[in-house]
Amino acid sequence: MWHEQEPHKGERMEKILKVKGMHCKSCNMLLEDSVGEIRGVESVKADFGKGQVRVKYGDEALLSKIKGAIEKEGYTLA
What we know:
By secondary structure, this protein is α+β, with helices and mostly antiparallel strands. 28% of the residues lie in helices and 32% in strands. The chain starts with 11 loop residues before the first strand and ends with a strand.
């Protein structure tokens, strides 16, 4: 069984998530705003051209919450 690695207390993580369904700059802004509201997310940069979201986050943010915010906006993780 595969487990997602979460940051330990005080640790910082950076993930690049592949996202399907992004088509324009508005998609970038929507995802950046949505993911950026999660406590512990330090930075988020969406790129619709590459179909990815780069997220830097600390131990207060769970990767599952980040993925949930992306899916809540109607996008699919690849």
